[in-house]
Amino acid sequence: MPVGLVGTKVGMTRVFGEDGIAIPVTVVKVDSCRVLQVKTVETDGYEAVQLGFGEKPRRLAARSERGHVAALSSKRQKARQQAGVEAVAKAECEPPRVVREFRTEGEDHGLEVGQEVGVSVFADAAFIDVIGVSKGRGTAGVMKRHNFSGQRATHGVNKVHRHGGSIGMSADPARVFKGTRMSGRYGNAQATVRHMKLVKVDEENSLLLVKGGVPGPNGADVIIRHSNKK
């Protein structure tokens, strides 16, 4: 099955392999993701599977969000029924907290609207990709943000040891190039870690153990998909 999953980063721990060597792993909790929509070329112009993760309190969900997962009575719906238009299948669940799509590109995924998808999707996977939002570190200088070495701490430097130094050009081109590495916001950006080794799939507890660290703090939502490189 080519679809991925949406889960929550629990934290890091270690497990021991058969050879007794400790393996650092990140634990990802994947509560069942529900299929909200199956898109096809005929109806949407492309093929994809839309999954919902978590539950949003109904009082915080907009009517459009509730109508996406359950049939709501409305004038437009009644008019479509009278015109003989077939109603779109609904998942009949609570509005999800996170909605993500996974392209299928013609593969036979065998999923239907309302079906639950669990960690068994990755039962035969050896490597996966993990997508998350990295920790936000606020405004940072060039040494922390770009790993600059800094200026000398001896003669000729007057209390500017951690500064970025000169950024300007000469009379030609007399401007600062776009993309010049300077201080600024560090982190809080989408990051993808590819080819991560999947150490264990715990279907009983809906857990994935991934070797190494994944972006984001504990409790953050992450997207897991099959790796197409290994």
Helicity level: 10-25%
Backbone shape: extended
The secondary structure category is mainly beta
Number of domains: 2
Poorly predicted tracts of residues: none
Number of E-type strands? 12
Measured distance between first and last alpha carbons? 16 Å
Can you say what the CATH homologous superfamily of the largest domain is?
A: Translation factors
CATH class of the largest domain: Mainly Beta
Overall pLDDT metric? 91
The biggest beta sheet reads: 6 strands, antiparallel, barrel
Strand order of the largest sheet: 1-2-11-10-7-12
The radius of gyration is: 24 Å
Topology as H/E string?
Answer: EEEHEHHEEEEHEEEE
Q: Determine the number of helices (DSSP H or I, runs of at least 4 residues).
A: 4
| Quaternary structure | single chain
Describe the overall structure.
It is a single chain. By secondary structure, this protein is mainly beta. Helix content is 10%, strand content 33%. It folds into 2 domains: 5-138 and 190-226, Elongation Factor Tu (Ef-tu), domain 3; 139-186, no CATH class. The strands form 3 sheets. A 6-stranded antiparallel beta barrel has the order 1-2-11-10-7-12. A 4-stranded antiparallel sheet has the order 5-4-3-6. The chain has a two-stranded antiparallel sheet with strand order 8-9.
Summarize, please.
With 230 residues, the chain is mainly beta.
